[in-house]
């Protein structure tokens, strides 16, 4: 049972400026799990120059621009997580795809992408993830470090991920849209 904010699975965590931890400054995190044992998500606005190497390069054709690996977070940076934009929401997991929320599913990178290509529009691969222990994320949200916002399926697969933080804030309207205009260096304001 949660004592703090509601679970965030399938939603976005948007870092509020200035977030002291450089790992998360101006990040947008797509949440994969959130329960009383902790939370897990991937940063969706940090592309790297790293391309998919063999044998993962066979997934390259399903990657939207930019077609590179993304830094999913500072935890277990050798771990790879793939998310797929499915053509239709999945009712249950298969050997290749497991539903996360709506048309977002996790994809098994050990499978041949031929088996999923007809069911997905895009795949993005993340190195590492963001993780929180029991109660940690709830405390950070209550302290104002994160905004919990609804995700659009295309957020995970944005073709301009460097602009995603501002894009997500702008579409909220009102005062949150103003936050999108905050300078990168708040001391220069």
Structural summary, described in words:
- The chain is mostly beta strands and 189 residues long.
- The protein is built from three helices and nine strands, in the order ββββββββαβαα.
- Strands 1, 2, 3, 4, 5, 6, 7, 8 and 9 form a nine-stranded mixed sheet that branches.
- The longest helix is centred in the last third of the chain and has 7 residues.
- 32% of the residues are buried.
- The model has no long low-confidence stretch (mean pLDDT 90).
Can you summarize this structure?
By secondary structure, the protein is mainly β. Helices cover 11% and strands 32% of the residues.
Please report which band the strand proportion falls in: under 5%, 5-15%, 15-25%, 25-35%, 35-45% or over 45%: 25-35%
- Shape type: globular
Low-confidence stretches: none
Helix content: 10-25%
Arithmetic mean pLDDT: 90
Number of helices: 3
**How far is it from the N-terminal to the C-terminal residue, by CA?**
42 Å
Number of strands: 9
- The SSE string, one letter per element, is EEEEEEEEHEHH
Q: Which class of secondary structure composition applies to the elements?
A: mainly beta
Please summarize the sheet with the most strands. 9 strands, mixed
Radius of gyration: 16 Å
Keywords:
nine-stranded mixed beta sheet; 189 residues; 3 helices; mainly beta; 11% helix
Write the layout of secondary structure elements.
Elements: E1 11-15, E2 28-35, E3 38-43, E4 70-71, E5 75-86, E6 97-101, E7 104-107, E8 120-132, H1 136-142, E9 146-150, H2 164-170, H3 174-179
Parallel strand pairs: 4-8
Antiparallel strand pairs: 1-2, 1-9, 2-3, 3-8, 5-7, 5-8, 6-7
């Amino acid at each position: 049972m949660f004592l703090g904010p509601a679970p965030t699975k399938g939603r976005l965590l948007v870092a509020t400026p200035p977030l002291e931890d450089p790992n998360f400054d101006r990040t947008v995190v797509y949440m994969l799990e959130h329960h009383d044992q902790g939370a897990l998500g991937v940063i969706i606005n940090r592309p790297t120059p790293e391309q998919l190497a063999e044998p993962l390069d066979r997934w390259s054709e399903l990657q939207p621009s930019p077609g590179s690996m993304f830094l999913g977070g500072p935890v277990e940076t050798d771990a790879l997580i793939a998310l797929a934009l499915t053509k239709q929401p999945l009712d249950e997991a298969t050997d290749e795809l497991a539903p996360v929320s709506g048309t977002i599913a996790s994809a098994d990178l050990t499978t041949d992408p031929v088996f999923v290509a007809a069911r997905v529009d895009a795949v993005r691969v993340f190195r590492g993830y963001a993780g929180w222990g029991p109660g940690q994320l709830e405390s950070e949200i209550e302290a104002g470090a994160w905004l919990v916002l609804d995700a659009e399926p295309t957020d995970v697969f944005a073709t301009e991920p460097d602009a995603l933080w501002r894009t997500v804030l702008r579409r909220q309207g009102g005062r949150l849209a103003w936050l999108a205009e905050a300078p990168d260096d708040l001391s220069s304001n």
